[in-house]
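To whoever picks this up:

The nightly regression suite flagged Thioesterase as changed. Nothing in the input moved, so I suspect the structure step. Input below, exactly as stored in the fixture:
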Amino acid sequence: MSTTDLSALSGLELLRLVRDGRLGDTPSIGRLLGMRFDEVEHGRIVLSLDTRPDFANPLGTVHGGIAATMLDSALACAVHTTLPAGTGYTTLELKVNYIRPARTDGQTLTAEGTVIHAGRRTATAEGRVVDDQGRLIAHATTTCMILGPGR
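Regenerated output under the current build:
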């Protein structure tokens, strides 16, 4: 892997490098949970993970924080794909609705995030998490604050 100036990359370029495994195995929430970037397009991200017993809540199903983290990642990264080089962002708000529990036995959960609005100061996105049978687990909306260069 050659040395890449990450600040010179657009959000879309950066996330495609992540998807392709070209940035190495740096510590991240994605690595911790085993998230994979399946699709990276302008304004849209699809990521997935396989559940495991470590994700259990006291009732034995996947903790809601796993779905929330998947949604925060998918929605914010969808926003990131719309940003030029040197521009950052941060989540201002995340609203999650939980629909049904997910199992901890290795089923694949998939999150899709899509940008609704990409403005100069804020961006909004929506998304959903489904199980390996296509059943809705949770859905969410987010607002991100856009941070210009040097902020």
